[in-house]
Task: inverse folding
């Protein structure tokens, strides 16, 4: 299992605490230091069944600079969104957990974290 975190994020710290309490074995990826590649992000999105705009933190200053809220949310613009997320990983919603069986969740709630255990 791998968890993408920002150590400054309280939701990430909560997710790690739950994983530790449950005795889960996992690898931490500090995705701001080691951003996902385009291929990795595509794979995670496929596993999540979501589109890049679904996991974008549009309230971040860089999102405002890029004017992301004005970008079309359709298949023709999907690659543009993915490129933005890989170039600016702070835009990626967190934490994201990918379990060994392929189950992947945006683990912002206790229930979502527990769903991969």
Result:
């Amino acid at each position: 299992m791998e968890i993408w975190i920002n150590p400054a994020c309280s939701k990430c710290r909560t997710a790690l605490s739950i994983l530790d309490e449950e005795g889960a074995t996992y690898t931490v990826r500090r995705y701001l230091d080691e951003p996902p590649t385009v291929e990795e992000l595509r794979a995670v999105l496929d596993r999540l069944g979501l589109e890049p705009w679904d996991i974008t933190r549009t309230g971040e200053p860089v999102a405002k600079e890029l004017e992301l809220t004005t970008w079309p949310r359709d298949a023709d613009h999907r690659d543009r969104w993915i490129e933005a997320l890989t170039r600016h990983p702070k835009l990626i919603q967190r934490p994201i957990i990918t379990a060994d069986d392929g189950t992947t969740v945006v683990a912002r709630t206790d229930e979502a974290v527990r769903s991969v255990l």
Remarks:
- The first strand starts at residue 2 and ends at 5.
